[in-house]
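lol so apparently i was supposed to do this last week
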Amino acid sequence: MDAALLAQARDRIAAASQIFVLTGAGVSAESGVPTFRDALTGLWARFDPEELATEAAYRRQPALVWQWYEHRRAMVSATQPNPAHFALAQLADQRPVTLVTQNIDGLHQQAGSQQVIELHGNLFANKWLDGCGRCDTVPPVPGEPPHCALCGAMMRPGVVWFGEDLPRVARYRAEHAAETCDLCLVVGTSGLVYPAAALPGMARENGAFVIVVNPQPSALDATADLVLAAPAGQCLPALW
Ligand code: APR
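anyway here it is w/ adenosine-5-diphosphoribose bound
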């Protein structure tokens, strides 16, 4: 890690009055959470994630997609937050921070972060697909999506699938926070998936200083005022 850049980032963070943080899969990498594509290992290696994570795929093969999510829940349940998650929770104890994540693993909350804005939903939340409004579950059977006892609707994972809109309130709150911050910290995201990837640009256009933390080059480096090429779990605890 470049000591001069680190010192510059520390000073900027110390002087900021509103901090907007955007996190991605990289913040959970050191916890051992497989990224979306890495989740397709073993039995799942022959599937294309973009063919499993869509509403059409779920309607076509509900048990298969449901089992993939059961597998992912089991993998995430075996992990713990890492120093990057804890550092972000600690930052919010000290400063005004809005934490926006693309992750669905809940590890920020487990580390103590509150009011996390989850742009892509949560792996452990379910919702109804075509529910009747009075849906009631029958006892779930492993490997099968639960059904409503009244109308037969299926439960579906409460995550954002390809082709779906972001949850409206989460998106609105994230955009507002990006536009009104004076420091934007982008951690562990490739910056390839929109609309989340547009948030640091909004922050920059509104005058914020943008810091990217990522050991690899990312699509958001061009938007950044400062890039810290280091793993989040090492870098963030050194920043405040
Ligand atoms: N610390 C910080 N960054 C890291 C670390 C680390 N220890 N390890 C890896 N990274 C970086 C990688 O270099 C990469 O740029 O994390 C990034 C992960 O990129 P993606 O896997 O594309 O994850 P993300 O940007 O969160 O993806 C966005 O796309 O797959 C969909 O819906 C899914 O929310 C996800 C969205």
